[in-house]
Design goal:
Layout lengths: L1 H18 L10 E5 L4 E5 L9 E5 L3 H11 L18 E3 L4 H23 L6 E12 L8 E4 L5 E6 L6 E3 L2 E3 L12 E6 L4 E3 L2 E15 L3 H8 L23 H10 L5 H10 L10 H13 L5 H11 L3 E3 L5 E3 L12
Antiparallel strand pairs: 1-2, 2-3, 3-10, 4-5, 5-12, 6-11, 7-10, 7-12, 8-12, 9-11, 13-14
Helix pairs in contact: 6-7, 6-8
């Protein structure tokens, strides 16, 4: 079935190439099929439809320029240790509130629908795990590349922020392809995160991208085809086959929770999560429910992500004590802790 779909796409690609009278964007090493969103790309080494790559325009010029202005200003703080196995020089989108809000709108209206169409999934089963801006620096000025790896999410997207003419090298190289894939500024790559890929070294200048991880929360038989040839069973802690609720602090996921609980917000949402059965198909909110219940009862804030979730739901309902530990405003210092 997978091979059949890929063969059909290849035939469509050939027919489109013969029928088209205008020049279409060309991506070296790939066959391109025009789609409502942009282009579906098929590498010469692709063997099934999960190796499709989508390319589409996404960021407006004003958003792109504003973001570049923020992240290139003197003194901008980057992190280098957020990811254990394949760390990048990055900053979470959540650290820039205006960008967080803009990306939430783009995810709902553009990115998740594009993933749904490209990979025949259900947008209601897609949840954002992480979003971050990455900097690759050439000439020995910092991290230049990222080795071959697969992501912790079923789907990933990469938005090119600056003009590719501003740096040498770079691009995304998939294991099933022979050439690195680069796209114009403001454009977005969409692909299955379980496909091995690497960030090709930047040799001169700086390359800036915005990357996101998107989980598929669905029945195992609908997730397994994307897992492909990776070793072992579907890993339950996160990613493929996991049903946990990822990153509840991110706006798109928070809105999904609010809708699931009848529009509940603030403390009402915390109480609904803590005391009502999970309301999302194929999503386990048990861990989140436990944290909400503990917070409502004793003011405990176990980790930074839950703190951010509280800030998004109840705002200033949390505070720091003298040692920097966080808890509910009004809680006794002894109740404020970093663990549960």
């Amino acid at each position: 079935m997978q091979c059949g779909r890929l063969l059909l796409l290849l035939l469509l690609s050939a027919a489109h190439g013969r029928a088209s009278s205008t020049a279409a964007p060309r991506f070296a090493g790939y066959r391109s099929i025009a789609s409502p969103d942009g282009h579906m790309l098929i590498s010469k080494g692709a063997r099934d439809w999960t190796q499709l790559v989508g390319v589409r325009p996404l960021l407006s010029e004003s958003t792109r320029r504003r973001l570049l202005g923020d992240i290139t200003r003197p003194g901008f703080e980057w992190t280098v240790d957020r990811h254990a196995n394949f760390p990048t020089t990055d900053v979470e989108v959540h650290a820039l509130p205006w960008l967080d809000a803009e990306m939430a709108a783009l995810l709902e209206a553009e990115i998740l629908p594009s993933i749904e169409r490209l990979f025949a999934t259900d947008q209601r089963r897609l949840f954002v795990r992480d979003q971050f801006v990455v900097k690759y620096s050439g000439g020995g000025g910092g991290q230049a590349s990222l080795g071959s790896h697969f992501d912790e999410s079923c789907f990933s997207f990469v938005i090119q922020l600056n003009d590719p003419g501003e740096f040498t090298g770079g691009g995304t190289l998939f294991a099933h392809a022979t050439e690195a894939l680069s796209v114009p500024q403001g454009h977005c790559l969409l692909f299955c995160g379980y496909q091995h890929h690497e960030g090709v070294a930047v040799t001169e200048g700086c390359r800036y991208i915005l990357t996101g991880f998107v989980d598929l929360r669905d029945e195992d038989e609908k997730v397994r085809p994307f897992y492909g040839t990776l070793p072992g069973e579907l890993p339950r802690p996160h990613g493929a086959g996991s049903h946990d609720f990822p990153s509840p602090h991110l706006p798109t996921n928070l809105v999904r929770l609010q809708r699931a609980y009848g529009g509940a917000a603030g403390t009402e949402l915390l109480e609904a999560i803590a005391h009502q059965p999970p309301a999302l198909p194929h999503v386990d909110t048990e861990r989140l429910a436990s944290r909400c219940a503990n917070f409502l009862q004793s003011g405990l804030v176990p980790d930074e992500k839950f703190y951010q979730f509280l800030q998004a739901t109840v705002g200033d309902g949390t505070r720091e004590d003298e040692s920097g530990r966080r808890g509910r405003a009004g809680a006794c210092p002894s109740e404020v802790t970093a663990t549960i």
